Amino acid sequence: MDSGCSYHMCPKKDYFETLKFKEGGTVLLGDDHPCQVQGIGTVRLKMFDNREYILKDVRYVPDLKRNLISISMFDSLGYATKTQHGVLKILNGSLVIAKGNKDKNNGLFVLDGSTVMAHASIARNDIDKTKLWHLRLGHVSERGLIELFCEHCVLGKSHKVKFGTGIHVSSRPFEYVHADLWGPSRVKTPGGGSYFLTIVDDFTRRMWLYVLKDKTETYKKFKDWNTLIQNQLETKLKILRTDNGLEFLSEQFAEFCRN
């Protein structure tokens, strides 16, 4: 995994799932040695969590000594990069797309994963996948193709998003409090409530639940709760964590936090 590499590059033709032979110019290595790009294709990788990921626009460079994964290519896709304790992670939000471990000998990050070997499908012209299946299925109609979509297959192959490990540590009650608003509910409560405000103390894991008719009541209910713990428990809230929903970003909440 290389932060100075402009493209993903691979010297082994057998690693490519698809490959188009074309003159792609030359690339310069760190010692200014030029290598000829002879094609562009895709390479399928199996990541550390057994999830498969397809690298696109991979340059076929036979003269390279090793495979190179470009950090800048991931950056151009909007992914973030995080390096900590000798581990490099590529992140899409909270999902870890790929990670590499630092080699103590040369300081490079080596991908925690492997290449899924495949016979390269070498082609000169692309064909639209929809058209391809239209032909394979005996010129089936567009409506027929849509009906072939299987929702259960998609849901069955989905993966749970991995969340990073929290770094905060609370040492006493109400030092760190979580608050969130849920709603609106499609069915109202007998009293007309459509929203639920939950407040959880991180240290004791005690939770308070308030039913609201409208999300504009969030600040008032939270302020009532804060008054309650100050009067009954003689303590003050130190840190409030929310999901940055608009109900927590009002000027009233900002003034409350400042004071």
Automatic annotation (TrEMBL):
InterPro entries listed in its UniProt record: GAG-pre-integrase_dom, Integrase_cat-core, PolX-like_BBD, Retrotran_Ty1/copia-like, RNaseH-like_sf, RNaseH_sf
Pfam families per record: gag_pre-integrs (PF13976), Pol_BBD (PF22936), rve (PF00665)
SUPFAM superfamilies tied to this protein: Ribonuclease H-like
Domain Integrase catalytic: 169-259
UniProt GO MF annotations: nucleic acid binding; peptidase activity
Keyword list, A-Z: Hydrolase, Protease
Origin superkingdom: Eukaryota
Biological processes, Gene Ontology terms: DNA integration; proteolysis
Name listed for the protein in its UniProt record: Retrovirus-related Pol polyprotein from transposon TNT 1-94
